[in-house]
Specification:
Shape: elongated
CATH topology of the largest domain: Ribosomal Protein L25, Chain P
Biased composition (Acidic residues): 188-199
Function: This is one of the proteins that binds to the 5S RNA in the ribosome where it forms part of the central protuberance.
Number of domains: 2
Number of helices: 4
Order of helices and strands: EEHEEHEEEEHEEEEEEH
Domain Large ribosomal subunit protein bL25 beta: 98-181
Protein name: Large ribosomal subunit protein bL25
Structural class: alpha+beta
Family: Belongs to the bacterial ribosomal protein bL25 family. CTC subfamily.
């Protein structure tokens, strides 16, 4: 579990938040059941590195005022223009209580159907699971090596794992292989002699 030292925030104006961001930190809130919300500032580089290396569902130990809190990132606001984190909410977690989270799906292998000319489609990129915080995987791997043309892989096809349960409908499609696109064959009727237009016969009748 990664530990990050955070600082208390005592000013909450927009200008104060702007100064925090300019100093390389991110305004944040720590909250939880039976716990008073605590405004803090967290180092942006440390947070981004932790989320990149361990995933958005990782457990982070936030240390402030001599006490520590095991938290998960519950919400993150980003600047749509700069693509930078501008605020983060951290929820204190009970390591023995199950939580529902979305986990990214990672397709593994090259599908046989793709080798045969088919087209891979993946309508589901994240899957909701129920798990204790310490058992949440960074990704759910789905092997599609044997997936052929006109075949699909569903949530129920993923091997079970005692550490977590899938919450979504087990019939939900994760990935499928569409057949190769075929060129439309034009039905030209009877064979025509080279260079003879289709409406040649019609012109001949008109000349009669």
């Amino acid at each position: 579990m990664t530990t990050i030292q955070v600082m208390n925030r005592t000013e909450f104006t927009n200008s104060a938040k702007r100064k925090i961001r300019e100093s390389g930190q991110i305004p944040a809130i720590i909250y939880g059941k039976a716990t008073e919300s605590k405004p803090v500032a967290i180092d942006s580089i440390q947070l981004i590195k932790t989320l990149r290396d361990e995933g958005k569902n990782t457990i982070i130990n936030l240390s402030v005022d001599g006490s520590s809190h095991a938290v998960m990132l519950s919400e993150m606001q980003t600047d749509p223009i700069k693509n930078e984190i501008v605020h983060a909410d951290f929820r204190i977690v009970d390591m023995q209580a199950e939580v529902e989270v979305e986990v990214p799906i990672h397709l593994v292998g090259e599908a046989q159907g793709v080798k045969d000319g088919g087209v891979l489609q993946q309508p589901l990129h994240q899957i909701t699971i129920s798990s204790k915080p310490g058992n949440i995987p960074q990704t759910i791997e789905v092997d599609i090596s044997n997936l052929g043309v006109n075949e699909t892989v569903l949530i129920k096809d993923i091997p079970g794992n005692g550490d977590y349960m899938f919450v979504q409908d087990e019939e939900t499609v994760i990935a499928s292989i569409l057949p190769p696109q075929q060129e439309k064959e034009i039905d030209s009727g009877e064979e025509q002699e080279p260079g003879t237009p289709e409406n040649e016969e019609g012109r001949e009748h008109n000349e009669e």
